[in-house]
Please model this.
Amino acid sequence: MTAVTDHTDQADRPGDKRPGDGRPGEDRSEDGAPENVPSATGAAGAEGHDRAEDTPENGRPDAASSGAGSPDGAEETESGTSGDGGRAARSDDAPGKEAPKEASEVKPRARGEGDDPARAEDGPVWDDGLIARRVTETAPGRYQTPVVETATAVPALPSPLAYDGPLRSRLDALRELVGLSRTRLDSRTLAEAGRVLDEAAARRRLSGEHTVVAIAGATGSGKSQLFNALAGVAISETGVRRPTTSAPIACSWSDGAATLIDRLGIPGRLRRRPLQSAEAEAQLRGLVLVDLPDHDSAAVQHREQVDRVLALVDAVIWVVDPEKYADAVLHERYLRPLAGHAEVTFVVLNQVDRLPGEAADQVLDDLRRLLDEDGIALGEYGEPGATVLSLSALTGEGIPELRECLGQFVAERGAAARRISADLDAAAARLRPVYATGRRVGLSEEARDEFADRLADAVGAVATGEAAERAWRRNANRACGTPWLRLWRWYQDRREPQTGRLPVRTPADEEATARQRVEQAVRTVADRAAYGLPAPWAQAVREAAVRGAQGLPEALDDMATRATTPGGRPPRPGWWPVAVLAQASMTILQVIGGLWLMGQIVGVMSPNLGVPVLLMVAGIIGGPAVEWSSRMAARGPARRYGLEAERRLREAASGCGRARVLDPVAAELLRYREVREQYGRVMGTAPAGAPVR
Model:
């Protein structure tokens, strides 16, 4: 037994009687279609006029015949139950009554006459609640076996959209970019990028076999009339009352699009199906058409609905008329900001039947000029871009061309990926001021060396080295000088304060000056590191430098104290002991000569002035000579000792500044380089016009 599921609360089909529409099923024109729909829609709806009568509720018995159902979607099952949610088979299809004929005058083939028994199970399975039991024309007057959802059948879910290749790489790069930037940029700056990621993820989970196209335009442009012309049946209300369309209406040419329409927020009562025909179904299979309210409506909620839906659809058909095709609101609020979405944009000039002679071509050329000024690439001569057409929804002129363009567009299955790619381009363009820069950024070695020199000056590295050099010389003079000179210097040292000795302590005024030098050095290196960076990252670099500068002067003082405190006796060269021994010898000669003369004076020793005088002269002259020689020889070692002390202090100051200031600044610069590389990956695009999968 075949079970039939009815979801008429999800979508209405042409020919069905809808509550409250004021149009009973029997009040139709002779061909079964509404009078305001062009007759070019064909005879597919010719037999839908009596479906409201053929229901069990009206007392009509179920038909037992196995004849083919009506072209508008009603068909019977093997059990005799109507294939349209329990509706009974039409009485005029019963045996003995001539069935209506198509234009080809060929009788429909009844079910079971030469059909493959498995055809009903091998066909497509409708799965979104928009179940339209219908037959599809395979040849004039011939129909396939009706497709019926059985109770045991498992619905085949439409395959989700695939983001592969360059588009997926760009989305991954944008996700990484947002993650790296959250602590450096405010949420408003990253809001658009986050929205693109969310919408891309949401669209990826939905059907990739459907393309959602919105029809948008100004008041009186004929959007709803074009919507009805494409659907082949009066779905959207038209009239002189403004605004006519108050809520979005969706029309799906195939099943499986329920979740896509749910995403648009369109309720089931506003979901429709087009007039079914084999040609239209094959041409526009996978299309979901959405009729929007006026974008310039006086009602604020209408404009809000337009903006909301336009951000979610895969493509847009902008409908303009000869009077308002140059409307500033349309161009400045929508077309110009969406110039990067040209590949998913259609611009149709409606109501060309109102233009005499060559006026339609002139208006169309002027429309192309305005679109070019808006920055919208036009898809001419095979180049990717927006499609611009002229038509008349009232007379049907240009409708076949639009159908053909839409059919090719939908068949490519690339509109959703192109829309996401265009949104990605727009988000990247908005983020360019906070990521891209035309200058080379970073901290050069020259800037690092200058910062180290400034810190060394702040801690007095040069003065410390000079003091160390003087101290080494003093030690050499003390060790190698004459005893009499050392006594004199000892006496002078007791009378005067010590100078030039380690450790060197900075007075209070010098400490204040040193603090100012440190702060100036930090500001200078921060400015040089931030030069050329976008404002948020330059601010982050400066803040990192300022945080590191807190406590830096005190740390430099402690470091300088440790570096300048001698850890032991200064090193002595190899000649130092020889000089000390020579100086001692000169002193001994002086003492011996003096004692010898003194002994001669008191008569203890025999008179002989030559030898003692010679000894005393040798000691007196030799002592200063040894001291002078030692002083000359000590210049080199003293200088090297002072330079070594200066180097140690410079390295200590540089290490302290590097750990507290340069490393945090370098970390911020490294983070910026990472996000700049990610931004470059986000900007990388696939070849124009190629569908990204």
Q: What stands out?
A: Residues 448 and 525 are 8 Å apart (CA to CA).
